[in-house]
Design a protein that fits this description.
CATH topology of chain A: MetI-like fold
Strand order of the largest sheet of chain B: 6-7-8-3-9-10
Number of helices of chain A: 9
Largest sheet of chain B: 6 strands, mixed
Number of helices of chain B: 9
Shape of chain B: globular
Largest interface: A-B, 20 and 26 residues
Number of strands of chain A: 0
CATH class of chain A: Mainly Alpha
Radius of gyration of chain B: 18 Å
Distance between the termini of chain B: 8 Å
Distance between the termini of chain A: 52 Å
Number of domains of chain A: 1
CATH architecture of chain A: Orthogonal Bundle
Strand content of chain B: 15-25%
Oligomer: heterodimer
Shape of chain A: elongated
Helix content of chain B: 25-40%
CATH superfamily of chain A: MetI-like
Structural class of chain A: mainly alpha
Radius of gyration of chain A: 20 Å
Largest sheet of chain A: none
């Protein structure tokens, strides 16, 4: 039996599940950015807070992903729908690299540049928006890149709680001991991750060479 | 002179100290008055409190004791942002924004002050000419400039809002000796023309003698002496003598620069 059999026989199903997978990962990383960007800026300003917050977010990664998906059943509203649980779990995973890189990116901006800006009379908001964030952008995108690859990879486990995505093919294949089915889920997931990694890597490179 | 409005000194420091939490004191009961339109040089070795004193003036730091008056008003009563835009700020490593072109670096403050774009552009052109930068450099990024050009951009940026006071922290420190001398004498002419109050931090005696109307000698965060350049060359103060010796060539030449120091 050829590994590509299932994939070639059911292209529409694979495509639908791929789109589902992309939206799971995309929404999750989007949420992680929405939370991680302001939180990362906040902890870059307060080193004491940074240790606590990064420690807490880091500890999420200690929970095995399958268990994390399971725990969320108990959360009201979230637990009602599998995709909600999957998105929350994936956002929590995606949060760490984003948070860490926003913080590191801002702290990595040349202090002379920040001090010059402050001494010239920029307000903290102007300093952040016009100097710190643009200069940290390369590092921030690097964090988003890690988060996206992570979300696409762990996203396959979301199928275990019925949230859909390419994991469905993989889990079905495992249950049926059908390698062609597993491959039909694994190959597109790997291609997605690779594509996201390469394209965001390109963006990151462009941003870094400006500085 | 252009400062008839107020007879108060541009900056008055009254017994100011700065003790950082958990560190040794950086400035200790310092008192100094800087009359409007005068260039005062803060001269001293590394760690003597020069830069800290400068940062007290634009409230990058607030004194832990004593106070500062800017144009007769306590620095604490100034909004820090307004105070800083009232004083140009140019520092040694220039701190140009690496992601902005020369034009945007110089025009940043006018832009955030809400100037219309054509007025900002005009001001940038004017400033670039003033500090001796060729117009085509406007679209360059800082990394594409020489050290001397970067320093000129730094000075132009500090002058963007035409502030009456200019704070400069070793603005020519990172340059080779020839470029430095060139920029120093250009700045001397510029300063005579603009008549701004300038506080200049340096450890370079030649620069102090050339540019300063007054030289405040700092040591361990304290004021060790306040001299005119002529007085500085005569005083028996051992610290001043040490400075003179450090800058006197072995063949017996003098540290006196070719252009006499002084302000309008």
């Amino acid at each position: 039996m050829n590994l590509l059999d299932y994939l070639l026989a059911h292209p529409r199903e694979v495509l639908t599940l791929s789109l589902e997978h992309i939206s799971l990962a995309g929404i999750s990383v989007g949420l992680a950015i929405l939370v991680g960007l302001p939180l990362g800026v906040a902890i870059a300003r307060r080193p004491a807070l940074a240790r606590t917050v990064l420690g807490a977010v880091n500890s999420i990664h200690v929970v095995p992903s399958l268990a994390l998906f399971g725990f969320l059943f108990a959360v009201p509203w979230i637990g009602d729908r599998a995709p909600r649980m999957a998105i929350l779990a994936l956002s929590l995973y995606a949060l760490l690299p984003i948070l860490r890189n926003v913080c590191a990116g801002i702290l990595g901006v040349d202090p002379a540049v920040v001090e010059a800006g402050r001494g010239l009379g920029l307000t903290e908001v102007q300093l952040l928006r016009r100097v710190e964030l643009p200069l940290a952008l390369g590092v921030i995108v690097a964090g988003i890149r890690v988060a996206v690859v992570l979300a696409i990879g762990i996203g396959t486990i979301a199928a275990a709680i019925g949230a859909g995505g390419l994991g469905e093919l993989i889990f079905r294949g495992l249950a049926m001991v059908n390698n062609s089915l597993i491959f039909a889920g694994a190959l597109p997931a790997a291609v997605l991750a690779l594509f996201a990694d390469l394209s965001l890597g390109w963006v990151e490179g462009r941003l870094r060479e400006r500085v | 002179m252009a400062f008839p409005a107020s007879t108060a000194p541009a900056i008055a420091i009254r017994g100011a100290s700065y003790h950082p939490p958990g560190g040794p004191p950086l400035v200790e009961s310092l008192s100094l008055e800087i009359p409007a339109g005068v260039t005062l040089v803060l001269l001293g070795r590394s760690g003597s409190g020069k830069t800290t004193t400068l940062k007290l003036m634009n409230r990058l730091l607030d004194p832990t004791a004593g106070e500062l008056l800017v144009e007769g008003r306590s620095a604490r009563d100034w909004d820090p942002i307004r105070l800083r835009r009232h004083m140009g700020y140019a520092i040694q490593d220039v701190g140009l924004f690496p992601h902005y072109t020369v034009e945007r670096n110089i025009g940043l403050l006018p832009a955030v002050e809400g100037w219309p774009a054509p007025r900002t552009r005009e001001r940038v052109r004017e400033l670039m000419a003033m500090v001796g930068l060729d117009a085509p450099l406007a679209s360059r990024y800082p990394r594409e400039l020489s050290g001397g050009q970067r320093q000129r951009v730094g000075v132009a940026r500090a002058l963007a809002l035409d502030p009456p006071i200019l704070l400069m922290d070793e603005p020519f420190g990172a340059l080779d000796p020839l470029t430095r001398a060139e920029l120093q004498s250009e700045f001397y002419r510029l300063q005579k023309r603009l008549g701004k109050t300038v506080v200049l931090v340096t450890h370079d005696l030649r620069e102090a003698l050339l540019l300063g109307a007054q030289i405040a000698l700092l040591e361990s965060g304290r004021l060790a002496g306040l001299y005119t350049p002529a007085e500085f060359l005569r005083t028996p103060d051992p610290l001043a003598v040490a400075y003179r010796n450090a800058f006197t060539p072995k063949n017996g030449g003098s540290a006196q620069p070719s252009t006499p120091g002084g302000a309008p």
